[in-house]
Design a protein that fits this description.
Layout lengths: L1 E4 L3 H13 L5 E4 L7 H5 L11 H9 L4 E4 L2 E3 L7 E3 L1 H7 L2 E4 L5 E2 L12 E3 H8 L9 H5 L4 E7 L3 H11 L12 H8 L3 E7 L11 H8 L6 E4 H6 L3 H8 L2 H11 L2 E2 L1 H6 L3 E5 L2 E8 L7 E12 L7 E12 L2 E4 L3 E2 L24 E3 L2 E3 L2 H4 L7 H17 L19 H15 L12 H10 L1
Parallel strand pairs: 1-2, 1-6, 2-3, 4-5, 6-20, 8-17, 9-10, 9-17, 10-13, 11-12, 11-13
Antiparallel strand pairs: 7-18, 14-15, 15-16, 19-20
Helix pairs in contact: 1-15, 7-9, 16-17
The chain binds NADP nicotinamide-adenine-dinucleotide phosphate.
The site of NADP nicotinamide-adenine-dinucleotide phosphate has 24 residues, from α7.
């Protein structure tokens, strides 16, 4: 009997490959929200519905008679929850426990001004536009905005590009997605939007992928600009060697080059998206008219240093650039916040990942996904990752060990897979009149009401 904590892609792929290798295994999946799918539901951008197709695969896993879903159950933690269980208790009640609860904590920069109003983590912004429960704290900020928005997104990963695209896209083009309606209403108020996406290294080192870059190149009403001098300064011999050795990178840079403009022209444009390079954030500065509110981000201009391909670093030049903004989004990666492994105390401090060897954390305690390897890769990366953890589990257990333990039985208020199906149906129905795949319930209470009304 195996407990999997977390029902995102990593948890579901562990369940899938465990049940495939060992059809007699029994799996209980434990999830903090009443609904499953973790990152697929609350992390994938609303205008990427094709990525969410994996949910079908997960439903097949859940249809196994050896699979049970325990939603609305918090594992460890010190927040309020009707249903709670500790990792220790799971270890007593299951033959093996797999922690697949992701990396859901925000990563900070640790520079002055980070606590100003308007400096927001991408973690919060993504959760807000995806209706993740408990993430309504951006409402007051957006309510106070005028009719224009000047946003600076720090980071050059796919999360940064997701955030920039959602901000820059015309709200009417997002109606037929499952974006949170409150977010959409707020975005509708802006008749002018400028979004600068700023990285500390050059185009060849940017973490975003070509698909996400391509999407940024054709946002209706939001032209993309890239500054010639920033691209040229990043063309070090080491960068050229990096580009030469990768066809994918070469293609990405060919696309990027098409959007290079001269700086003078770009300065004249006060709307659209710009991708900025070689700028390291130094400080968030307060607005003169309101010292609690961010008014600009101070960047130090950088050059690349290092002659090992793939390992160039950004080095400050002692010259600075200040970009005015109302909103500064930090998209510089995530951290993991696993539940306490012993006792029933608070979660651990944010860490890059949970130390493990091929998924093994301790005796019959395992991990998978972002908690195992840190926040990297696409959803499909969790397949090989899950297989690796499953193999470790099977090597440890031996064929006769399953079945000695019976799992947890005293969680009265948990949601079941059937409950999720009722919530799913209600959400899909409410999306129908708008042509949206679903309208997600923004809070747990509303989800539980659907079930209790049945
Ligand atoms: P990421 O890909 O690791 O990108 C993090 C970005 O933050 C990098 O540009 C990094 O720059 C920058 N950064 C880190 N520390 C910084 C600092 N102190 N100052 C300035 N910049 C800093 O992380 P992510 O965007 O959060 O994405 C996480 C994972 O999810 C990735 O594997 C991503 O591909 C995946 N994802 C995929 C999709 C998709 O497939 N559509 C969507 C979203 C996310 P350096 O490179 O210089 O360190």
């Amino acid at each position: 009997m195996v407990a999997i904590v977390g029902s995102g892609p990593s948890g579901f792929y562990v369940a899938k490959y465990l049940l495939k290798s060992w059809p007699e295994a029994r799996v209980d999946m434990i999830e903090q929200y009443p609904t499953p799918h973790g990152l697929v539901r609350y992390g994938v951008a609303p205008d990427h519905p094709e990525v969410k197709a994996v949910e079908k695969d997960f439903s097949k896993v859940a249809s196994s008679s050896n699979f049970r879903f325990f939603g609305n159950v918090l594992v460890g933690g010190d927040g309020e929850a009707e249903c709670r269980v500790s990792v220790e208790s799971l270890r007593r009640n299951y033959d093996s426990v797999v922690l697949a609860c992701g990396a859901g904590a925000e990563r900070k920069l640790g520079i002055p001004g980070e606590d100003l109003e308007g400096v927001v983590s991408a973690r919060k912004f993504v959760a807000w536009y995806n209706s993740e429960p408990k993430h309504t704290d951006l409402e007051p900020f957006f309510e106070r905005r005028e009719t224009s928005l000047d946003a600076v997104v720090v980071g050059h990963g796919n999360v940064a590009l997701d955030c920039a695209r959602i901000l820059a896209t015309k709200p009417e083009n997002l109606v037929e997605t499952d974006i949170a309606r409150k977010t959409l209403e707020h975005l509708k108020r802006f008749d002018k939007k400028k979004v600068s996406v700023v990285g500390r290294r050059g185009p060849a080192q940017a973490a975003f992928t070509i698909k996400e870059l391509r999407e940024l190149t054709h946002i209706d009403g939001a032209p993309l600009s890239i500054f010639k001098d920033e691209v040229q300064k990043a063309e070090t011999p080491t960068s050229l060697a990096e580009i030469e050795s990768s066809r994918a990178l070469k293609r990405k840079l060919e696309l990027l080059t098409k959007f290079i403009v001269n700086e003078r022209n770009n300065n004249e444009r006060d709307y659209g998206v710009s991708l900025r390079f070689l700028l390291k954030p130094i400080e968030f500065k307060a607005r003169q008219s309101n010292p609690k509110q961010v008014g600009s981000v101070l960047f130090e201009k950088c050059l690349l240093s290092g002659d090992v391909p793939g390992q160039q670093r950004s080095e400050g030049t002692g010259t600075f650039l200040e970009l005015p903004c109302d909103l500064a989004l930090l998209a510089v990666g995530y951290l993991a916040e696993p539940p306490a492994l012993e006792g029933s105390g608070p979660k651990s401090k944010p860490i890059p990942f949970l130390p493990n060897v091929n998924g093994r954390v301790g005796d019959f305690l395992y991990t998978a996904g972002w908690l195992k390897r840190g926040p990297s890769g696409i959803i499909g990366s969790n397949i090989a990752d899950a297989r690796d953890t499953v193999q470790t589990m099977l090597n440890d257990l031996g064929p006769l060990s399953f079945g000695e333990k019976q799992g947890i039985s005293n969680l009265e208020d948990h949601t079941t897979w059937e409950d999720w199906q009722a919530i799913d149906e209600a959400e899909r129905k409410s999306g129908e009149p708008l042509g949206a795949p679903r309208l997600k319930f923004p809070d747990v209470h509303a989800m539980l009401q659907v079930i209790r009304k049945q």
